[in-house]
């Protein structure tokens, strides 16, 4: 089931998410809803806070990046089959020299900016079957994971921008929080006037 994506300005996006227990109610349904919602919005990742739940969980499927001709064949292949659920994740290490990539976010439509992140990460997490993993990811996969991980830490990609960039996009962000934006997927806006 497709659920609305929470827009910039909603307090849930700034909350540090809580870990969940194995008995979390209707977890399978939640995972399926997150996939449906993410694919419907043409996203490559979605964190639970983005659908209004302050819990430590996100899903990623960076397959669309596998079409990028500039990437090496090996990375393109690995991105094709990387559909994963991360529950209670913990980044253990971020390594390498930071690199910039133009990021966007389903909660902040029509805003894209270069964000610097480290290229290699190690992360511990549970999958949807509650199997524990410790994996390393690099390149775009690592970036998508870092972006979604930030969501469960209450951090948005816009928080990582310079003060000048933040000032330049301030008006756009205010409009998003008021619902003054056209998107082709369901959204929930924090500051919309009733009756609109």
From TrEMBL:
Protein name as it appears in the record: Peptide deformylase
Assigned keywords, A-Z: Hydrolase, Iron, Metal-binding, Protein biosynthesis
Keyword Hydrolase found: yes
Residues annotated as the enzyme's active site: 148
Cofactor(s) the protein needs: Fe(2+)
Species annotation: Christiangramia antarctica
Pfam families according to UniProt: Pep_deformylase
Record: residues binding Fe cation: 105, 147, 151
EC number: 3.5.1.88
Cofactor binding mode and count: Binds 1 Fe(2+) ion.
Role, per record: Removes the formyl group from the N-terminal Met of newly synthesized proteins. Requires at least a dipeptide for an efficient rate of reaction. N-terminal L-methionine is a prerequisite for activity but the enzyme has broad specificity at other positions.
GO molecular function: peptide deformylase activity
Catalytic reaction(s) noted: N-terminal N-formyl-L-methionyl-[peptide] + H2O = N-terminal L-methionyl-[peptide] + formate
Family: Belongs to the polypeptide deformylase family.
